[in-house]
Write a structure and sequence with these properties.
Blueprint (H helix, E strand, L loop, with lengths): L1 H4 L10 H14 L2 H11 L11 H23 L5 H47 L9
């Protein structure tokens, strides 16, 4: 279900060649910053705010309906009529769609970034962990 919404379970596990390239770069340079820069550049598009997910479409649908429905609710229909009630109801539903789209989109983006950072920390611990038997904090 997470993949349907736009959440990624794992970033690095599926990319074995990228992991081997990162390990080789760390062995050659000895610098974690270079490895981190390589991995962040590789996943830059997947972690972008502008990458659409399921909730982005909620935002598009709700946002595009808000102004026309507001016009119909406030101007086009007489208060007390069935059309006025339906326009007001549809306006509220469109506003809920837009709000769900905004919140859901940012939650998915931040969860993906958090999972990516956790995988970077795990990779850093596995690369730097073997120095004299000590684990980094």
């Amino acid at each position: 279900m997470g993949a349907f919404v736009g959440l990624k379970e794992r970033f690095l596990a599926e990319r074995r060649e990228l992991l081997s390239r990162a390990r080789k770069l760390y062995r050659d340079t000895g610098s974690w910053e270079e490895v981190e820069k390589l991995l962040k550049e590789e996943f830059k598009e997947e972690l972008s705010f502008f990458r659409p997910n399921l909730f982005t479409y909620f935002l598009f649908i709700g946002g595009s309906l808000i102004l026309p429905l507001l016009y119909m609710w406030k101007v086009a229909f007489e208060p007390g009529t069935t059309a006025h009630f339906i326009a007001r109801l549809l306006f509220v539903i469109a506003a809920m769609f837009a709000l769900k789209g905004i919140v859901g989109h940012y939650v998915v983006v931040f969860l993906n970034r958090d999972r990516f950072e956790a995988e970077l920390k795990a990779l850093k611990a596995s690369l730097e962990g073997g120095k004299n038997g000590e684990q980094p904090n």
